[in-house]
Specification:
Elements lengths: L2 H16 L2 H4 L3 H15 L10 H12 L17 H16 L4 H5 L1 E4 L2 E4 L11 H4 L16 E5 L5 H9 L4 E6 L2 H13 L6 E5 L11 E6 L6 H5 L21 H9 L4 E10 L4 H7 L6 E5 L2 E9 H4 L1
Parallel strand pairs: 3-4, 3-6, 4-5, 6-7
Antiparallel strand pairs: 1-2, 7-9, 8-9
Helix pairs in contact: 3-4, 3-5, 4-5
Enzyme class: transferase
EC number: 2.1.1.298
Keywords: Methyltransferase, Ribonucleoprotein, Ribosomal protein, S-adenosyl-L-methionine, Transferase
Length: 313
C-alpha cells in the first residue's frame, strides 16, 4: 500500500467516526441514553455495587469524565469534546464486549462515602459490613471508642480495614490476606487514607501468621462461593481473582478454618462476624451446635453471622 493510499484510508476511518456514534452523541444526556441501551442490549450483569443498567451507566459515564458521581443534574446538558467521546465509547464497548466491571475500567470503587483504588488484583469492594460499621457495629459493640485491637481477615483491597479504622478510632487494625498482589494494592489504599500508623498489613493464610495475637473484634468477608455457584457466575465475576471467590465444594473451606481458630484469637467477650452471602442454610447445617446470631441490614438479611468467643467453645 502506498503512503498516499494509507493516508486516504486513515482519513476515511476518521470520517466514519465523525459520522458514527461519536459525532451524534454530544451531551452527557446523549451518552447516558446510549450507554443504557448498549448495556441492555448487550445483557451485562450489574453485580458490583449498582442496582441496574441505568446506575451502571451513570457511574461509568461520570467516572470516565472525572465528574462527581453524586451530581448528575448540572452536567446532563454539558457538551463532551471529541477526545473525551473516544474514551467514553471505548469504556462502554469494553464493558459490554469484554464484560469488564466498571470499577476496573475506572480504577476505583466506593463503599458509602469511601473511595478505594481497585484493579484486577482484588475483588471489587462490596460488603454488608460497610453499613454495619457505620455506627461502630452497634448494638453488638457498646463503646466503639473502647475497642483496642481489631482484625480484618481476607482484607483484599483493604477497604474494610479502612472502614474499621474510622469506626473504632482508638483501635490498632490488623489486615490479613494470603495474596501478595492484594496486599500491595491494600498498601496503596491505606497510604491514601493516611492510616499507615494504624493499619498493619500481614500476609497470612487465615490465622497462620497471627500466632498468639488476640483481638476484640474479628471481621471477615472471606471467599464463600460454592463450586456449583462458581460454575454459574456471570462473566463479570471471572475478571476477579478466583482465590477471593471460590472456597471449596460447599463454599465453607475458609469459614471452617476461621471458626476453628477464632476462639484462640479473641479476647474475652470478643466478637467474630463473617459475611457468607446466601449460604445461611449451608453454614447452619455444617455447624449445628453453634448459636449463630444473624444480622440484618438494608442490603439484605442473614448474609452475616456473629458469634462471641464464649459461644465458640
Amino acid at each position: 500500500m502506498s503512503e498516499h493510499q494509507h493516508h486516504d484510508d486513515l482519513q476515511h476511518e476518521d470520517h466514519e467516526h465523525e459520522h458514527g456514534p461519536l459525532a451524534e452523541l454530544v451531551t452527557v444526556r446523549d451518552w447516558l441514553r446510549y450507554a443504557v441501551t448498549r448495556f441492555n442490549r448487550g445483557g451485562i450483569f450489574c453485580g458490583h455495587g449498582v442496582a441496574d443498567t441505568y446506575d451502571e451507566a451513570v457511574w461509568l459515564v461520570l467516572g470516565t469524565l472525572s465528574l462527581p458521581l453524586d451530581r448528575l443534574e448540572p452536567f446532563l446538558d454539558a457538551c463532551i469534546p471529541s477526545d473525551e467521546r473516544e474514551a467514553l465509547f471505548d469504556n462502554i464497548e469494553r464493558r459490554v464486549e469484554q464484560r469488564i466491571p466498571t470499577a476496573y475500567l475506572l480504577g476505583e470503587a466506593w463503599l458509602g462515602d469511601f473511595r478505594f483504588k481497585v484493579d484486577q488484583r482484588v475483588i471489587v469492594p462490596r460488603s454488608f459490613f460497610a453499613e454495619l460499621l457505620e455506627d461502630g457495629f452497634s448494638p453488638w459493640i457498646d463503646e466503639p471508642d473502647a475497642v483496642e485491637r481489631v482484625l480484618d481477615m481476607c482484607t483484599g483491597s483493604g477497604c474494610l480495614a479502612i472502614l474499621m479504622a474510622h469506626a473504632f478510632p482508638n483501635a490498632a487494625v490488623t489486615a490479613a490476606d494470603l495474596s501478595d498482589d492484594a496486599l500491595a494494592l491494600a498498601h496503596d489504599n491505606v497510604a491514601d487514607y493516611g492510616l499507615d500508623d494504624r493499619i498493619e498489613l500481614v500476609k497470612s493464610d487465615v490465622f497462620s501468621a497471627l500466632e498468639g495475637r488476640r483481638f476484640d473484634f474479628i471481621l471477615s468477608n472471606p471467599p464463600y462461593v460454592t463450586a456449583e455457584a462458581m460454575d454459574a457466575l456471570p462473566p463479570e465475576y471471572l475478571h476477579e481473582p478466583r482465590m477471593a471467590l471460590a472456597s471449596g465444594e460447599d463454599g465453607l473451606d475458609v469459614v471452617r478454618r476461621l471458626l476453628a481458630g477464632a476462639a484462640d484469637h479473641l479476647n474475652p467477650r470478643g466478637i467474630i462476624a463473617v459475611e457468607i452471602g446466601h449460604n445461611r442454610s449451608i453454614v447452619e447445617a455444617a455447624f449445628p451446635h453453634l448459636p449463630f446470631t444473624w444480622l440484618s441490614c438494608h442490603g439484605g438479611d442473614d448474609m452475616v453471622f456473629m458469634l462471641r468467643r464464649e459461644e465458640l467453645s
